[in-house]
Amino acid sequence: MNGLYVCPADAGPGWREAMEAGIDMSLIESALEQTPDERLNEHQQVLDFALEFQRTPTFDASR
Amino acid sequence: MPQDDKALLARLCQSQVDFVIVGGVGCVLHGAPLLTYDLDVCIRLAAENLYRIEAAVKDLHARHRLAANKLPLELTDELCARLKNLHLQTDLGRLDCLGEIEGVGDYGNVLKRSAVIPLAFGKCRVLTLEALIEAELAAGRDKDVGAVRFLRAIKDRPKSAGRGRREKSLTNFYVNTR
Fold this sequence. Notes:
Structural class of chain B: alpha+beta
Largest sheet of chain B: 5 strands, mixed
Helix content of chain A: 55-70%
Strand content of chain A: under 5%
Number of helices of chain B: 7
Number of strands of chain A: 0
Shape of chain A: elongated
Distance between the termini of chain B: 40 Å
Radius of gyration of chain B: 16 Å
Structural class of chain A: mainly alpha
Oligomer: heterodimer
Distance between the termini of chain A: 37 Å
Radius of gyration of chain A: 17 Å
């Protein structure tokens, strides 16, 4: 994914380090386009999904 | 168990608790795309403030999460004088109220390095980006190292990646409280 990402020339060292660590920088870019409320709401949606997933019984491969 | 950070924050605001959002939710508010399973706030360790917290969660079956016997939250003046942190499990999720933040200091120091932001239910204080980085570095756990990577990237974000266009750094939302 980051192989296609062109790092802006004015990016600081922290941005470059994250990119080189393999972080999908579009995740940060899209978060930065949101308001604080939108960030909290999106986090809540992901959290609800993660907690629901954890409650799901493990798939039984023997069945 | 659900985890509803907005509802917990709204209750703290409504009960006029003196607190600053720190930890993972603080990182999320600054734009870090990470997932956190609890709400960490730094609180003023004074009896009146602790009683406000108790009032905020009084109908949520709050319990001391880390105590072996999971005792319900029932504050007394004597207990308030001894408390340094409150690690609570409530019907709305985990709420960690911390008297001190590693790398930053006590509530007074945290307050100085916080900013007010508007949220749907009211204004809240959140630790600044620079102070959050220091706190996460001081904590030094694996998950904190990941958070630091996001926070440093946000601090060093390129102008061409949105600044002045659609980008909404949390500093754009800081409310002048002077």
